[in-house]
UniProtKB/TrEMBL annotation:
<dbReference type="Pfam" id="PF02646">
    <property type="entry name" value="RmuC"/>
</dbReference>
<keyword id="KW-0472">Membrane</keyword>
<keyword id="KW-0812">Transmembrane</keyword>
<feature type="transmembrane region" description="Helical">
    <location>
        <begin position="6"/>
        <end position="29"/>
    </location>
</feature>
<dbReference type="InterPro" id="IPR003798">
    <property type="entry name" value="DNA_recombination_RmuC"/>
</dbReference>
<comment type="similarity">
    <text>Belongs to the RmuC family.</text>
</comment>
<keyword id="KW-0175">Coiled coil</keyword>
<protein>
    <submittedName>
        <fullName>DNA recombination protein RmuC</fullName>
    </submittedName>
</protein>
<keyword id="KW-1133">Transmembrane helix</keyword>
<comment type="function">
    <text>Involved in DNA recombination.</text>
</comment>
<dbReference type="GO" id="GO:0006310">
    <property type="term" value="P:DNA recombination"/>
</dbReference>
<feature type="coiled-coil region">
    <location>
        <begin position="398"/>
        <end position="425"/>
    </location>
</feature>
<keyword id="KW-0233">DNA recombination</keyword>
Length: 450
């Protein structure tokens, strides 16, 4: 618990004394005038004593304050001195530790330096020893390999010499025989060269190349379509003397016998295509662009010619097919931007190559089959209609038969009822022996049969 200050204690004592005096004064005043004088005298004495006590207390408090100030100053001086001593001791300890760390680090560096130096010397010695050993082993290996290679070379040279002698002898003999055959073949080659020259002159003719395209087109049609589905040299346009090379028969959707033709004509712009290939070989971009445009003009001209001569709806389809006999030519036409779309839009001509024509004809063949199935389907529907009508009549016959059967069943039930009634009537009649009954019934059966 914290002690109360001295001043507070004094004030408390003064208050208590004042209360006691007040009580005494009250008590004395009640006893009379003499008593009041004595009380006042006592109060005066108490006041004197209080003054003296107050003075003594004040002096004591002053002395205590001075002693406390002096003790505090002495304590502060002692604390300062102790702190200074501790700081000096701490600085000394820190300096000592720093010196120890510095000395230890220097010793470690020196020891590490010595160790690294020793390791480096030992490593260099080991590397030198290893290199010397490897050099020695490698030298021995090289010498051994050289000896083996020399031996192998001698063996190979010997075998090669023998083999060459044998093979050269055989080869000279074979070459001599082949030279004789070559001399005989030269005469044949000369004849073949003259034949090739004749063939080149024939192929250089545009009409001949057109015949080759027509021949190739005929071969494709023959491979894919049956003979009944196409024809050669067909006059597809009424009042025209021009015949298309090939025309595919398109059956009508109804059952009429009228045939619609799909014109197919082979075209081969020989000169423009050859010039374009020559321009590609030379790498001249100007010539390439020029001959591309020329090829485009020729293809458009062919399309216009086919449409004018061979397309005549409703005798033909509203479009026709232009066949290009080489895939390279077809690819070149495809590379010309917008040409295929223009031909189809303006002239309604579909351009095909050997591969695309085969795909188109296969698709057309599937269409023919679908149309045939469709025609057969209509026939099947007619047959089913007839069967349905007959089946309705058959239902009526079955209904009548059911009625007849019901009537026969009722007659049989009536006969059974009558039979049971007869049995009841005959129950009292004497039964004949079986043999006699059978004889009698047999005679009756014979009479009935007669």
């Amino acid at each position: 618990m914290t002690a109360l200050p001295l001043t507070v204690i004094i004030l408390i004592l003064a208050a208590v004394a004042a209360q006691i005096i007040a009580i005494v004064v009250v008590v004395r005043l009640r006893r009379g005038p003499d008593a009041r004088d004595k009380v006042f005298q006592k109060i005066s004495d108490y006041e004197d004593r209080l003054d003296k006590n107050e003075f003594s207390v004040r002096e004591e408090i002053g002395k205590n304050r001075e002693d406390m100030i002096r003790a505090a100053r002495d304590s502060r001086d002692e604390l300062t001195r102790v702190f200074l001593d501790f700081s000096a001791m701490l600085d000394k300890k820190i300096q000592t530790i720093q010196e120890m760390i510095h000395n230890s680090a220097r010793a470690n560096r020196e020891e590490l330096s010595v160790s690294l130096k020793s390791f480096g010397e030992q490593f260099a010695a080991n590397v030198k020893s290893f290199n010397d050993m490897q050099r020695e082993k490698f030298g021995e290996l090289i010498a051994d390999n050289n000896a083996k290679l020399e031996k192998m070379r001698e063996t190979v040279d010997e075998k090669l010499h023998k083999t060459l002698e044998t093979r050269l002898g055989e080869s000279f003999k074979l070459v001599s025989e082949r030279l004789e055959m070559v001399q005989k073949g030269l005469g044949e080659m000369q004849g073949l060269a003259s034949g090739v020259g004749d063939l080149k002159r024939v192929l250089s003719n545009v009409k001949t190349k057109g015949v080759l395209g027509e021949y190739q087109l005929g071969g494709l049609l023959e491979q894919i379509l049956p003979p009944a589905q196409y024809a050669r040299n067909v006059k597809t346009r009424a009042g025209s003397a021009d015949n298309v090379e090939f025309a595919v028969k398109i059956p009508s959707k109804d059952n009429s016998a009228k045939t619609i033709w799909l014109p197919v004509d082979a075209k081969f712009p020989t000169e423009d295509y050859e010039k374009l290939n020559a321009a590609y070989d030379s790498g001249n971009t100007d010539e390439i662009e020029y001959y591309k445009k020329e090829l485009e003009k020729k293809i458009k001209l062919f399309a216009k010619d086919i449409k004018t001569k061979y397309v005549d709806p409703p005798n033909t389809t509203d479009f026709a097919i232009m066949f290009l006999p080489f895939e390279g030519l077809y690819a070149e036409v495809l590379r010309i931007p917008g040409l295929l779309e223009t031909i189809q839009r303006d002239f309604k001509i579909s351009i095909t190559g050997p591969t695309t024509l085969a795909a188109f004809l296969n698709t057309l063949q599937m269409g023919f089959r679908s149309l045939a199935v469709e025609k057969r389907t209509s026939e099947i529907w007619e047959l089913l209609g007839a069967v349905r009508a007959e089946f309705g009549k058959f239902g009526e016959v079955l209904e009548k038969t059911k009625v007849k059967l019901d009537q026969a069943s009722k007659e049989i039930d009536n006969a059974g009822t009558r039979s049971r009634a007869i049995e009841r009537k005959l129950r009292d009649v004497q039964t004949l022996p079986e043999t006699q009954a059978q004889k009698l019934l047999g005679d009756m059966t014979t009479v009935d049969d007669e």
